[in-house]
Amino acid sequence: MIKTTLSENSIIGEAAVSTERYRNFFRKAIEGFSPEVHCGAFEYWLNLNNGKTLKEAIESYRLAEPPKSIEERLTEERFDIITEPDKSFILAFSNEIADLGYDYGGHIGWGACWGHYMVIYSKVGVKSKQVAARIFIRENGLILRLFFNNVEKHIGYIEDAPEHIKSVFASKHGDCSCNPKKDNCRMRKTYTIDGKQIEKCSGVVFEFHQPDMVKLPDYMSLLEEFYVSKKGGNKA
């Protein structure tokens, strides 16, 4: 009998794989793997994840772990792919955005199609998940994605911003490519910079590639422009 090769895309229960092989896979994939902490014996935990890919099961396990500080989380072996300068940026950004009332929630999840992992910064103390920023973690570096609405109200600030800030709003990356364009598309962000109308798709927009500590004050200033009320306090 040919032995099934297990990968992150393998589906639990789809092929004849022994419980012990599954256990060994998770032990190698997850540092300190111990499903008993969450929901009893390994077989029970495995059955709960039947039909999921191994990657999805790993993600659900990690999300069930107790929250950790960002400093503790980044010491995990899976984050060895992050360079020390990039770790320093994540730590500093996390501390800065906390002052605006946003936090990463104690967990770093799967990055889906955006990278290996993704840090999500949400508003603290509200029921709805108001996301201000995400950091996509890839083998070749980081991408900082910021979330903005009503861009037109902040054009004066953007036009006077440093080029590495302004270019993200004015470049062609993330431009709407729909043809024909739908009226009142919820995904479209429309604004005018330097007299030129810009139309972008909110699914792939406002991404800052290879963010670093030198530019961190500019990222935070931009976030404050959108998220901090001029009257004092946060807008969201």
Concise description?
Helices cover about 35% and strands about 15% of the residues.
Give your account of this protein's structure.
With 236 residues, this protein is α+β, with helices and mostly antiparallel strands. It is 33% helix and 17% strand. The chain has three domains: 19-64, no CATH class; 70-147 and 207-227, no CATH class; 151-204, no CATH class. A hairpin with a 2-residue loop joins strand 6 (188-193) and strand 7. The radius of gyration is 21 Å and the shape is elongated. 21% of the residues are buried.
Strand content: 15-25%
What's the helical proportion of residues?
25-40%
The major pleated sheet works out as: 6 strands, antiparallel
Number of helices: 9
Helix and strand content put the structural class at alpha+beta
C-alpha end-to-end distance: 59 Å
Average pLDDT score: 88
- SSE run: HHHHHHEEEEEHHEEEH
Quaternary state reads: single chain
Cα-atom Rg, whole angstroms?
A: 21 Å
Name the poorly predicted regions.
none
- What's the total count of β strands? 8
- Bulk shape: elongated
User: How many structural domains in the coordinates?
Assistant: 3
